[in-house]
Amino acid sequence: MENLDAARLQMAFTLIFHIVFACIGMVMPFFMVVSHYKWLKTKDQLYLTLTKAWQKGVAIFFVTGAVSGTALSFELGLLWPEFMKHAGPIIGMPFSLEGAAFFVEAIALGFYLYGWGKLPEKFHWFTGIIIGLSGVASGILVVAANGWMNAPSGFDYIDGQFLNIDPVKAMLNPGWFTQALHMTLAAFASTGFAVAGIHAYQVYKGRKVALHTKAFKIAITFGAIAALLQPISGDISAKDIAERQPVKLAAMEAHYNTEKGAPLYLGGIVNPETQEVTYKIAIPGMLSFLAFGDFDAEVKGLNDFPEDERPNVPIVHYAFQIMVGIGGLLMLAGLLYFISLKKKKWFTKSRYWLFFVLLAPMGFIALEAGWIVTEVGRQPWIIHKIMRTKDAVTPMPGIVFSFYTYIVVYLTLSIAVTWLMIRQIKVLNAKNN
Amino acid sequence: MLYVVLFFLIFSLYLYVVLGGADYGAGIVELFSSEENQKITKKTIYRVMGPVWEANHIWIIILIVILWIAFPAYYNILVVNLHIPLTIVLLGVTLRGVAFVFRHYDAVIDNSQKLYDAMFKISSLITPIFLGMVFGGLISGKIKMVEDVSTISFYEAFINPWLNVFSILVGLFFAALCAFLSSVLLIGESEERKENIYVRKATIATIVVFITGLLTFIYGYIGEYVFVKDFIKNPYAIIAMIVSGLLLIPLWLTIKSGRRVLSRFFAGLQVFLILLAALISHFPYVIITETKQVSLLENIAPDSVIKTLGISLIIGGAVILPGLFHLLKSFKMIKILEQHNNPSD
User: Fold this and answer.
1) Confidence of residue B331 (pLDDT cuts 50, 70, 90)
2) Of B67, B214, B223, B221, which is closest to residue B134 (Cα–Cα)?
3) How far is it, in rounded angstroms, from Cα B47 to Cα B33?
4) Closest listed residue to residue B55, CA positions, set B97, B116, B102
5) Residues whose CB is less than 8 angstroms from the CB of residue A133 and which lie 6 or more positions away in sequence, other chains included
6) Does B76 touch chain A (CB under 8 A)?
7) Which of A2, A4, A53, A47 is nearest to A28 (CA)?
8) What is the ipTM of this complex?
9) Which residues in chain A have their CB less than 8 angstroms from residue B312's CB?
10) Which of A99, A254, B123, B339 sits in a 20 to 30 Å window from B12, CA-based?
11) Does residue B302 sit in helix, strand or coil?
12) Which residue positions in chain A have pLDDT lower than 70?
């Protein structure tokens, strides 16, 4: 395996792993504080049990997210030293603020986990809010740094030199808002559906129905609202990409030839040799409309770009289809949940619960697919139109061994964390209240 | 603003060495304890470190972020030439953090605890050794600065800078220092009132610190290491080392008289002096390669970057430090109250 490929795979692999843990660590505190709030209001013992069960989840996921995040902060330099040498100072600001937000989160978590019965009730609850807010702030700041790679700004690039650096402008690059909005909603949707799915499974199996129904309702409310809002954010993102990274949009849609009134392809098998997409459903003019708000607008095709500036089309196209498809499904499921609040008897049907069980992993699959669209879609650039990924990679050979080590360690960790969660739930079900 | 940035760089390095170090040291102390004492130590570590250990480890992130933003050229040498030991440190940090949480948050207590404990203890020892080897590697004079690393062998470029006797000695010295810090912290913290366990550990750790430190110097002196030669010639560094050694006396007295907070203060001060001695003997030339010494202040980021970083650090510091202080303080106060309420405890 080439060093560059090994480095890219290692980065992808560690990010895929980190994102799941980071999202759960960022969103679950909100479920926890809602349940905590209900406990303080109603003094219903079930809410206390639930809050304490969720806080263990938060602690486990926070640490896994934190250590994998620490690893990533080093990996950026270890794998891409040329990138960090130039980009580090420019995009340092979101990272330093992220460090601060993360620190606040760790402090608040310390207060929250160890504060039961020791801190004043309201202050204790409030530290839970701080965990959630600082977690979301961390996420937004990191995404802002990623946004800069897609939409580099805040410097002048003259003769291979990065001059007149403006870190604030770099942080508030044109990509940050659309990406941060999309990612934050995605984190809420995927964690919401995942947690709801796990509790739905317990209800489906008839274990502690009252407790798990309460847990399900809290989690799914967050997930459903986020899933319903996500299409709006997706539309903003699509229009933004159409303008700033037309080649990425073309790859997402496997759109090879520039045309007016371009159709939108749903699904389809891409053949990059013949540049044909078979087995697709084409909606005439829709791509032009989604990208530019005009059914007749011209959408640039991949062939308008030099061959060495195009990403891997099939990967980007398939990932995009998966993301959008699941996004639509979750949106419908969100609607279904709100309808079920009116039709109470649905809650007694095992089909209803099974449906949400099956949806549990979907949000995260969509979220990973979305990141594949962004990251693979940006290739061959590490900094859009400024630096190529191959010029940023470490000169140290043999990265493939480091990649294999990470695979073994991270897979073991994933299995261990899953196993731990199963044990948590079993103990929760065995309790007598 | 450069001074603000430098202050935070050294400040976070110091706090990482002291707080993170005490944290690693806890695992080392546990590793070298009898089976019965291991159980006591495990409980004590959880109570003392539990609320703060995550915060302790964020200092290294702050440190690395400051390095890459403000001192990119320095950071570049670090991540390219010391890639392997840093990767091992990362794996150690990961396994250790996860093991800590697993062993305290697993809902079922069974045999898997043994695995978590082993993971925690071993990674607590290996991680600081490799961190020390990274420090040692930076000053060992074994890093080769070449335009194209493919012109030299893999061993010369990526192994020799850190896998050499001098760096290993620095690594062992750092691990011993962690154990020393942790033993002083743990004295008087165990619920079973087993101060003597940790007094004994502190004594052993002090001896190991002294021996590994001395060996590092003797080896470096015989091998004519630039860093050691300059260190010995620097009067400030020597004074700092002597004072650090002399502080063992008040440290011992405060431990004997049961003044816990003061004894921790002295131990922290000792480590500060050691770090200070190591830094001033060579500042700002913090990397010593085979052919030249690289100044930290060479090729620093442009003014606009340093300025915004300084401002971010001041704001961040203003938010974090009071919170952190409050966290450390609250739990200590809570502990005192608890003891007051339950005199039998």
Assistant:
1) low
2) B67
3) 18
4) B97
5) none
6) yes
7) A53
8) 0.81
9) 93, 96-97, 100
10) B123
11) coil
12) 432-433
